[in-house]
Amino acid sequence: MSWRVWRERFKRVDSLFLRLFLLMWVTLVLSHLVAFSVVSPMGVAWIGQLSTQGASALPTLPSLPPGNPLSDRNDEAGRRPPPQWAPPDETAWPPDAVAGPDAGPRPQPRALWLDYVLRALIIGVGAALGARWLSAPMRRLAQASTTLSQELADGRDPPALDERHGTVEVRDSARAFNRMALALKHQFDQRNLHMAAMSHDLRTPLTRLRLRLEHLPEEAARAAGEDIRAMDELIDGSLAVVREQSTASPPLRLDLGALLQSLADDLVELGQPVSLTDPLPAARVCAHPASLRRIVDNLVGNALRYGGQARIALHVVDGQAQVWVDDDGPGIAPEQWDRVFQPWVQLPEAAGIAGAEGSGLGLAIARDLALREGGRLDLSNRPEGGLRATLHLPTA
Question: Do 231 and 261 fall within a single domain?
Answer without folding.
Answer: no
